[in-house]
């Protein structure tokens, strides 16, 4: 009920903002007082609202209006807005990999100049601000499993995911039109070294996937399917998002995960070309990167990794334990080669579609 | 659809309602102008832009790519296959409902009509999620099957092609029932009585009189179901597995994931062309078959 309420207030706010922006045509001074950001809505929005937007409004007097959409919708809508020259959003969130693509750069403003102010900041990770957008947070896609009896072996690597004798039970993999994670997991299971993963050997990956295919009971398309499938005991080992695994853990389900087999991917805040409230949008982005408190508060709820190490230090021990960071990243976590993935996205999807049918 | 309505209006019970002849041609034209303008601006113009986009760069390269990679044609054929199966299933399940609605007394017919209309007015998303709840591993159907001892283990019902066909049939059935119902309603009961009077049994009367005269509604409903099924997106995405990939899924991938809009436009144009081809084929088949002239 609360989410319904909050959604209707979001809609209401957007409507009011729309009406106000109509008024703004005649009263240009009003236009400077708000900024419009598209994000994926729900719990994600609520956490960002509390940790980031509300403190920002308090500090600057600029109202933050959010618009809810899925990542794919945002991407398509942003492209349509810029192509038709009718831009009504200022900022939107997109995946780290997409944010490095040519299509993304055509739609968003190059932030290289904006990023210079963060060059000397030691607490921020090296990729915290780049031409395609400012880093909001990073989360992992990893191997999660149902906890068995005490003393039973525990899966740790992707090779374990493929070992159906040692770890019986059904498997789950994502199938949401972005297949590199599954292919990369297959290659790691097949013995490819972490630093030799890219460029992905698609033939070898699909051959390895063919071996596990009979055991895969769920090819999930939405995060919700991966959660519902685990609740229904549809799979006992799955490649899923850490945020969802954490949510199920909080629900009391017998789930655990391995950082040894995780891929770290971030979300970026991108500025649309021709954004109506460009200056406010830049202020909002800078506020995020400059405010470890805001990052810590949001990631505490969402179990994400914030861009600032100071923010990590502010988080509770419990949250830090369930978050890929520091040594994990150096020792196991795989950071994808965004450039290669973008250059080959169409080819990978084509091969994937042919294989999965 | 408009044709079948026109044929209905020529049947005796509708004749009094044909008011077109009361207005001068100019007045009629003035009355339809807003609709035509809306269609031009809201439908024809975007479709023309879409087709133009598919030829962007002045080449046929996007079309060549569609035909060069077997995946696209495979998916197109399985889309047509699914649409066909869904249409036949809707017809087999929908005809008896329409027949019942046409024969019941007004009050009961209203009750049945409500059962048809309320799902029609419910969001496709909600209806598709209802199937997820019913078909999932610990869902109602599996529980029932296990409790009654039909199976020992839960069956794999969701994320299959069968689930897609089932859910699509459910979503599209009202589009089959309503045209058949209107065709049957327009059928004067005297015809069946005359057939019975001349010695035909109930089955013979149905086959010789009711069924042929209901065909305009059957064809209108079939073409609507078929055309709508060709473009289905939400239902297969929710209840289908990786094997049930339809054209709309491919177009969606190109539009939102790869942002390759010219190629998405080319795929859409091919789907549109195939849809029009089927509509034309339907009409051609009808005009060739004798005894069905009343349809057109």
Automatic annotation (TrEMBL), chain A:
The keyword Signal appears for this protein: yes
InterPro entries: SBP
Highest taxon above the source species: Bacteria
Keywords associated with the record: Periplasm, Plasmid, Signal, Transport
One Pfam family of this chain: SBP_bac_8
GO process terms (BP): thiamine transport
Subcellular compartments: Periplasm
GO MF annotation list: thiamine binding; thiamine pyrophosphate binding
Any Gene Ontology CC annotation: outer membrane-bounded periplasmic space
Similarity comment: family membership: Belongs to the bacterial solute-binding protein 1 family.
Protein name, entry field: Transporter AttC
Organism (species): Sinorhizobium americanum
The organism's taxonomic lineage, starting at the top: Bacteria, Pseudomonadati, Pseudomonadota, Alphaproteobacteria, Hyphomicrobiales
Gene field: attC
TrEMBL record, chain B:
Residue stretches spanning the membrane: 76-101, 108-130, 163-184, 205-234, 261-282
InterPro entries for this protein: MetI-like, MetI-like_sf
Keywords: Cell membrane, Membrane, Plasmid, Transmembrane, Transmembrane helix, Transport
Gene3D superfamilies: MetI-like
GO CC, alphabetical: plasma membrane
Subcellular location: Cell membrane
Membrane topology: Multi-pass membrane protein
Lineage: superkingdom: Bacteria
CDD domains in the cross-refs: TM_PBP2 (cd06261)
Entry keyword Transmembrane: yes
UniProt record, GO biological process: transmembrane transport
Family per similarity comment: Belongs to the binding-protein-dependent transport system permease family. CysTW subfamily.
Name the record gives this protein: Spermidine/putrescine transport system permease PotB
């Amino acid at each position: 009920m609360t989410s319904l309420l909050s959604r209707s207030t979001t809609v209401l706010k957007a409507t009011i903002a729309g009406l106000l922006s109509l008024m703004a045509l005649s009263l240009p001074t009003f236009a400077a007082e708000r900024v419009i950001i598209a994000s994926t809505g729900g719990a994600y929005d609520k956490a960002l609202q509390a940790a980031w937007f509300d403190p920002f409004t308090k500090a600057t007097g600029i109202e933050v209006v959010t618009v809810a959409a899925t990542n794919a919708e945002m991407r398509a809508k942003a492209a349509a807005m810029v192509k038709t020259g009718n831009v009504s959003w200022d900022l939107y969130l997109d995946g780290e990999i997409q944010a490095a693509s040519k299509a993304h750069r055509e739609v968003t403003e190059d932030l290289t100049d904006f990023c210079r102010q963060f060059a000397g900041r030691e607490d921020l990770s090296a990729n915290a601000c780049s031409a395609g957008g400012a880093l909001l947070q990073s989360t992992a896609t990893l191997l999660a499993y149902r906890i068995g009896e005490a003393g039973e072996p525990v899966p740790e690597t992707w090779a374990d995911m493929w070992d159906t004798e040692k770890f019986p039970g059904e498997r789950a993999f994502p199938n949401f039109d972005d297949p590199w994670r599954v292919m990369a997991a297959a290659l790691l299971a097949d013995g490819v070294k972490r630093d030799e993963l890219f460029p992905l050997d698609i033939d070898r990956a699909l051959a390895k996937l063919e071996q596990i295919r009979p055991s895969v009971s769920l090819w999930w398309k939405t995060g919700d399917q991966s959660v519902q499938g685990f609740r229904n005991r549809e799979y006992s080992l799955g490649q899923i998002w850490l945020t969802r695994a954490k949510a199920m853990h909080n629900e009391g389900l017998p789930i655990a995960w391995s950082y040894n087999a995780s891929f770290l991917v971030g979300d970026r805040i991108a500025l649309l070309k021709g954004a109506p409230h460009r200056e406010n949008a830049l202020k909002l982005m800078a506020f995020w990167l400059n405010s470890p408190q805001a990052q810590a508060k949001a990631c505490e709820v969402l179990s994400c990794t914030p861009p600032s190490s100071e923010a990590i230090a502010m988080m509770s021990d419990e949250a830090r334990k369930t978050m890929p960071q520091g040594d994990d990243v150096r020792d196991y976590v795989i950071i994808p080669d965004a450039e290669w993935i973008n250059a080959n996205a169409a080819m990978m999807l084509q091969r994937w579609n042919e294989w999965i049918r | 659809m408009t044709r079948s309505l026109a044929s209905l209006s020529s049947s005796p019970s509708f004749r009094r309602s044909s008011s077109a002849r009361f207005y001068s041609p100019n007045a009629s034209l003035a009355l339809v102008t807003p609709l035509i303008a809306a269609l031009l601006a809201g439908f024809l113009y975007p479709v023309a832009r879409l087709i133009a986009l598919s030829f962007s760069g002045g080449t046929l390269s996007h079309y060549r790519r569609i035909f060069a990679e077997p995946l696209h044609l495979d998916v197109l054929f399985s889309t047509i296959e699914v649409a066909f199966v869904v249409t036949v299933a809707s017809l087999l399940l929908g005809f008896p409902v329409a027949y019942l609605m046409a024969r019941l007394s007004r009050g009961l017919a209203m009750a049945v009509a409500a059962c048809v209309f309320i799902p029609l007015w419910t969001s496709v998303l909600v209806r598709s999620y209802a199937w997820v709840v019913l078909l999932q591993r610990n869902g109602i159907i599996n529980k029932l099957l296990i409790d009654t001892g039909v199976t020992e283990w839960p069956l794999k019902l969701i994320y299959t092609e069968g689930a897609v066909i089932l859910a699509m049939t459910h979503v599209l059935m009202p589009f089959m029932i309503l045209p058949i119902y209107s065709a049957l309603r327009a059928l004067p009961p005297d015809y069946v009585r005359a057939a019975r009077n001349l010695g035909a049994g109930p089955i013979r009367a149905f086959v010789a009189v009711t069924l042929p005269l209901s065909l305009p509604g059957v064809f209108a409903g079939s073409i609507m179901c078929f055309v709508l099924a060709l473009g289905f997106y939400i239902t297969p995405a929710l209840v289908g597995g990786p094997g049930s990939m339809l054209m709309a899924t491919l177009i969606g991938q190109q539009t939102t994931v790869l942002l390759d809009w010219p190629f998405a436009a080319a795929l859409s144009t091919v789907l549109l062309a195939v849809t029009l081809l089927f509509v034309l084929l339907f009409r051609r088949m009808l005009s060739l078959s004798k005894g069905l002239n009343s349809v057109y």
